[in-house]
From TrEMBL:
InterPro entries: DIOX_N, IPNS-like_FE2OG_OXY, IPNS-like_sf, Iron_ascorbate_oxido_reductase, Oxoglu/Fe-dep_dioxygenase_dom. GO terms for biological process: small molecule biosynthetic process. This is 2OG-Fe(II) oxygenase. The keyword Oxidoreductase applies. One of its GO terms (molecular function) is metal ion binding. Pfam families: 2OG-FeII_Oxy (PF03171), DIOX_N (PF14226). The keyword Transmembrane helix does not apply. Keywords: Iron, Metal-binding, Oxidoreductase. Belongs to the iron/ascorbate-dependent oxidoreductase family. Residues 176-280 form the Fe2OG dioxygenase domain. It comes from Lophiotrema nucula. Gene3D superfamilies: B-lactam Antibiotic, Isopenicillin N Synthase, Chain.
Amino acid sequence: MSSADLDLELPIIDLSGYISPTKPGDRDRVIAEVRDAARQYGFFQIRGHGIPLSLQRDLLKCMDNVFDLPVEEKLSMSFLQNPCRRGYEASGMSHREGDPLPDAKECFFIGQEDAVVEQAGFFGPNVWPNLPDNDFRNPVWSHYQHTRDLGKTIWTILIEGLGQPAALVNEFAKRPVVPMKMIRYPPHSTVQPGQLGIGAHTDFGGVTILFQQPGKDGLEVWHETKEEWIEVPALEDVYVINCGDMIQRWSGGAYKSARHRVINKVDGQRLSCATFWHGDVHATNPLRPDDPNKDTVGQLLVKRFRTQYSIDKEMIALVGAAAA
């Protein structure tokens, strides 16, 4: 990307005008800015989101705490051995079809905390590492709650941007699927030639809320019209939002789901954390009730990930034959 192409910088939107408006027109302005960014890029950045800066800094420490555990201890928490796909993903476990090499990243997954496994593993208990609560569980859970709530807010703004009532979000938010993925990328100098932190892909579902370690750049977003990668800087107290394939489909293409990738461009390791707000497992398109495509959130999830990870047969059976 040429540094002169300033029009290819993702906009930074101040959400405080929507969350806590102080004058007439504040909410409408934010709705319009989000709508325009989601239409043009499928991505935008946000300030005024309400997530404390102190919590963001604590989250960075927590991620280092879990990823610095001995390899054997991390592998004992493997998400591939967990019915809810919670826990640890080692480097090389994720390999998208078409990518020459698996991703170099390692991850740790949590989700909504439920006492027992339900809905074939869409809901259930988290896996928590053997660390003091204040060194991992408490800050991580607090960040999860903040970003879970923020995801619903973003969905609501997107819905209003289509001229629909804000209350429509409640039709598919009774018990939404909201996983959170903490990620650590190795130094670029240590990966194999051609191996990326995360290869180019679109997100499968709804709204993604991404926290990036400040000063550790790496995210790039593909602009289809100009056929160029937009570099997204990792700025303090700024989160990155993007729409997934489900939003593009449900909105009839009004909002984009853009390809993106991560290349760790700095010395040392890089941390990020993504929360994915999808909606209820059995929800179909609430924006267009007459949509002939009746795929549910669960069906779309299984379709997307069964070739990337091993998906349990019980999960496939739960979401129905359409996912086969």
